[in-house]
Design brief:
Shape: globular
Low-confidence stretches: none
Number of domains: 4
Keywords: FAD, Flavoprotein, Oxidation, Oxidoreductase, Redox-active center
Number of helices: 17
Family: Belongs to the class-III pyridine nucleotide-disulfide oxidoreductase family.
CATH architecture of the largest domain: 3-Layer(bba) Sandwich
Largest sheet: 5 strands, parallel
CATH superfamily of the largest domain: FAD/NAD(P)-binding domain
Number of strands: 30
Domain Rhodanese: 465-549
Pfam family, one: Rhodanese
CATH topology of the largest domain: FAD/NAD(P)-binding domain
Strand order of the largest sheet: 3-2-1-7-18
Distance between the termini: 60 Å
Mean pLDDT: 96
Radius of gyration: 27 Å
Helix content: 25-40%
Organism: Carnobacterium antarcticum
Amino acid sequence: MKIIVIGSVAAGTSLAAKARRNTEDAEIVVYDQGKDISYSVCGIPYQLGGEVENIDELTPRDAAWFKKRYEIDIFTEHKVSKINHEKKTLEVQDLISGKTKEDYYDILVLATGAAPLTPSPFDQKQYDNVFQIRNIQDARDIETFSAMNQPKKALVIGAGFIGLEMTEQLVRKGLEVTVVQLEDQVMPPMDPDMTFRVEEHMREKGVNLILSDTVKTIDGETSVEKVTTTKGVTIEPDIVILSAGIRPNTELAKEIGVEIGESRAIAVNKNMQTNLPDVYAVGDVAESFSVITGKPIYRPLGSTANKMGRIAGDVITGGNLEHRGVLGTGIFRIFDLHVGQTGLTEKEAKAEGYEVEVLYNIKPDHAEYLGGKELIIKALADKKTSRILGAQVIGRGGVDKRIDVMATAITFKAKAEDLFHLDLAYAPPFATTKDPVLYTGMALDNALNRNPLMTPADLVHRQNSGELLQIVDTRSKKDFEKAHVKGAVHIPLAELRERSQELDKSLVTITYCNKGVTGNAAQNVLLNHGFEKVYNLSGGNKNYQSYLKMMRLKNKH
């Protein structure tokens, strides 16, 4: 059996290695048109920023290593230009010599990855100071340019993972950075009320963040000297980083009749097989599916690519591994903030038809007396089944372990109450006695049963629609006078039992404090005193004021 793999980054090399571990009988050949193999794309921003000392650390293995270790032939700078699947042959061009040869296969694997999008008007001409981040050569080119030109001002197009990571690292290098984002928020896969906190942090760090805008015109012949946005903003960058997204490299697949899925990536089954016999697809060129909905989704990440490669390598050599889908789990760092997400966002859950309970949980990541810092968890549960559907977490520490616990729980279909009963590690340097994950489960379970929550968005919507609401601020007079919810009456928690008769038991009532805990206590008092419908404002006044600020800025722009 001869296996030919087109592509040698995460998925292709993972597949080849697993296939070889399963059998010594197969001939395994890998072709890649690039110079480097098995490299870390995700590590490139950190190498450019100086956190990774040497670029070679991102390419720990070469073709010779794979040949010696696995008896796998990897040909770099070799482009597969044509495939004849009926004959099971392909044409391969040596990009160094220019010579073309024919090769044959029994099994073909498409691991062709994805290519960065080049947005207009940057696609009209080549500029020597415009770069993309997709492979090791890109990093080398940026390093060479920076050494020769010492750029002081950078323009980053796009605010996804790579755009934000590059922004952080360019600021770290001392550059003045402007980010232009087409959508009205950074990280569009997340909910805007969470990413607003990221946007504020970026501005605090000196980043010029331009949302809901795009570059319209470019001045300069060989270099980008000035750009003007659709809204008339002018920027004069020394270097431009394009990070406007990627698209799967499906050209070869389409030519031989491989089916393309809803996400525009290659449609595969759980064994990573395409619609054509003996043709597989793995990595950033392949479609995945949601663990929650079962529907096709495209979430290209190195971790998923490695997993897909291992699965296909096993299946091809007689194994029975299956791809079990993804949750879209991701995490990034932007200056002092760590930001993670998993599962469905609020907007995605509602689009899927779920009626969701939404909790904003604001707690320290570990004991405050040992330097614990604020952690914000936005978690969703399905009101019908109590199943956890998704979570987004922002903080200065402890984000990764919380998002991983949530991802694990969602994968195994945990309900809100299940989170509370998890036996998580506790010691003051690492967690609080009631870990933020445990508290999330407890509060969501309460909300699904006796103590409903109201989000700031829902409260504002109800107020704007003229609904008669009774809002009770349970904090101190000092906090109330500093900032409070529109239309709220001030009754501190300690006085609420005695003064509850001042309130109308039949009206929809919302209690709140600064972050949510005292508001919940007040909610219980009123429910126990016979109030008919009492909500706790999720995330308290702090979350409410953040939401108002976000809306003011969005409406302004």
